[in-house]
Amino acid sequence: MSQHDLNIANQTAPNTRSDLNSALQALxxxxxxxxxxxxxxxxxxxxxxxxxxxxxxxxxxxxxxxxGYFDQSTNAFKVLDDTMVVNTSGTQTGIIxxxxxxxxxxxxxxxxxxxxxxxxxxxAKGTSSLSQSGYQIFPSGLYMQWGRxxxxxxxxxxxxxxxxxFPNNFWVVNGTPMDNRASGDFEVDFYxxxxxxxxxSTFTIINEGTSSGNNQTMMYMALGN
Length: 225
Description:
Blueprint: H1 13-28, E1 45-48, E2 53-57, E3 64-71, E4 76-78, E5 83-86, E6 92-96, H2 101-106, E7 112-113, H3 117-125, E8 127-129, E9 134-137, E10 143-152, E11 156-161, E12 170-178, E13 193-197, E14 202-207, E15 216-224
Parallel strand pairs: 6-7
Antiparallel strand pairs: 1-2, 2-3, 3-4, 5-6, 8-9, 9-10, 10-15, 11-14, 12-15, 13-14
């Protein structure tokens, strides 16, 4: 580890030789040290021993640019996270690092990058609320929602609010009767069900059965985007 101001002063021959050796040692060790060289030059290298990172001085000689990490325990060079990948003109074409899960879910980011299996799984599964009345938002933008509606009487229209509102379109909703009677006997004419979307967050469910179909629980599934 050696640093030098790289300026050989006028001096005696032995001192000049010693000064030259010190300067060459500094160059040979990339000006290594735990703190930056006190005298800096544009584009000079400095190996920061406190962080094991090789740095280069900017052309304006006003900042240090980190090049990479040197793992001294495994004798390996390692690329720093979020290092930009650029073309020969300096235009970014990618990034060596990860990006936020929200960017992957939106699917609109165009920057090439590394991605962990966990993020791939997170994007593939989409956003969901897995409960009796819940929803699943797929990466394609499709929304699937489901739930149960209780206390639906015969020949009654009942307004139902979805777990979440569809952002753009409410395409279709289907209703299915759930037989609650202790006997378990299912008589479909008691439970003729119809559904009609009202807006992006509500729909009407209609029990068109006879009075024997009062106070029923209906299940539904809705699709939109």
